[in-house]
Amino acid sequence: MKWLIPAAASLAALATFSAASAKGESTPPLKASVSQKAQWYKGNLHTHTLWSDGDDYPEMIVDWYKSRGYNFLALSDHNILSKGERWFDLSGSRGRGTPLADYLEKLGDDWVKTKVQNDKVYVLLRTLEEFRGLYEEPGKFLMIQSEEITDSYAGHPVHMNATNIQELIPPQHGNSVLETMQNNVDAVAEQRERTGVPMFIHLNHPNFVWGVTAEELMHVNGEKFFEVYNGHPSVNNYGDKIHAGTERMWDIILTMRLAELNMEIMYGIGVDDGHHYHDMAIGKSNPGRGWVMVRSKSLDADSIVHAMERGDFYSSSGVSLSDVRFDGRRYSVTIDAEEGIEYTTTFYGTRKGYDSTSTPVTDDDGEPLGVTRNYSDDVGEVLAVVEGAAASYKLQGDEIYVRAKITSTKKIENPYVAGETAAAWIQPVVPRK
C-alpha cells in the first residue's frame, strides 16, 4: 500500500484539525454478560499499536478484529498502557499517509485531533478508556487492558505479556534470564494480590533471538502460559538444527515440571503479535495469524482469565473446534470441519519410566551451546494419530500428560511461513488419580 506523506504546504491544513475537540468520553470497562451455557470466544492477546511500535491507530486495529468476528482483544504495547495524553509525531514513517486518511474517514475530524508544533504534525492517540465504548458490546466484543513487559538479560529478549493488568509494570530485570522472568511474574502476582483483579502473565516468543531455553522457562514459579505459536515472522516457532521449536520445548517443559520438578502444568497460547496492518504479506507481522478460543459462560475479563487458567481454551491458526472433552481417562476433540478439508489429530505425551537423560547441544568443537538441551524420544512421544473430524485418546494410566495438535490441509491466506496450513493446539491434560 502506497504511503501518502503530507507535504510541507499541507501543514497548515492539517493544523486545522487541532481546533476540533474530541467528543469521545471515557467509558468504564464492559460488565459481565452472562450466558446460560458456556460458549467459545475468539480473542487475541498480543497486539501492538502506535502507542509503541505498531503502524496503525488503536481504534482502527480494534475495528479490524471486531469486524472479523473476534470477541475480545488485548492491546499489549511495549512497556506502556494506553493512558494519559500522548501526541504522536507524524514525521516518521508510521501513522501518516494512508493510515491517517483512513483514520479520519472512519472517525471524523471531531475525533481525530492534530496539532502543528515546530513545523511538525502531531496526532493525539486516544486512550483505551476513551475508545473502548466505541466497540465494546455485551456478549459480543470486549477490550482487555494489557502490557508487553519488555525486558532482557545479556542480549536475550525476555518479553512477557500481562493480561488484564490494572497498573503499568516496568521491566523488573534480573541477574539471569530465569531471574528476569521470575521477577516479572512476581510483579504481576503482587499486583493481582493487591488489587484483587484476576490477571495473568505469559512468556512471549521464547525463540525470538533465541532468548529463552526450555530449561529456563520450566523453572519459573507461577508461570502457567507461554506462546507456542506467534505470527511474527522473526520468532522462529519451528526452531532450526540447533534450537528446539516451541512445540518441542512445550513437551520438555511439561515432562520436567510434572515428573521432576513438582510444578504446575503449562499451557500454550497462540497469538498474532501484530505490528503491520497495511502491508499484508509473508515477512510482515500481520494480524489474523494466531488466536485463542476460550470457553466461558460470560464475556468479561475476569471470566476469560479464569477459563484460561483452567486450561479451558485452545489455540488456533485456522482450525475450529466444536468441543473438547476430558473425563479423566478419555481425551476427545470434535472439529468444526470445513467441506473438502482433511484433518489429522496427533496426541502427544510422556509416559512414566521415560528415559530422562539429556545432552547439551554442542558446536563444531564439541563445546556446549546455551540452548535447549537434547532429550530422548520418550519425551513428547506420539501416542496416537487419528484422521477425520473427531478424535479421542483413552489414557492408559501411565501418561504424565497428554496434549493434542490438529493439522489440516486448509491453506492459510496470509501464513506465517510459505506453505503453512491451518492448525490447532489443544491444552495438555493429566490423568485423574
Class per helix and strand makeup? alpha+beta
* Spatial sequence of strands, sheet with the most strands: 8-7-6-2-1-11-12-21-20-15-18
CATH superfamily heading of the largest domain: Metal-dependent hydrolases
Helix count, DSSP H or I runs of 4 or more residues: 8
Secondary-structure map with pairings?
Blueprint: H1 11-15, E1 34-44, H2 58-67, E2 72-75, E3 87-89, H3 98-107, E4 114-117, E5 120-124, H4 128-135, E6 142-153, E7 156-163, H5 177-195, E8 200-203, H6 214-218, E9 225-230, H7 246-259, E10 267-271, E11 291-298, H8 301-309, E12 313-316, E13 321-326, E14 330-335, E15 343-351, E16 358-359, E17 374-375, E18 381-387, E19 390-394, E20 399-411, E21 421-429
Parallel strand pairs: 1-2, 2-6, 9-10
Antiparallel strand pairs: 1-11, 3-5, 4-5, 6-7, 7-8, 11-12, 12-21, 13-14, 14-19, 15-18, 15-20, 16-17, 20-21
Helix pairs in contact: 2-4
Quick description:
The chain is an alpha+beta fold and 433 residues long. It is built from 8 helices and 21 strands. The longest helix has 19 residues, at 177-195.
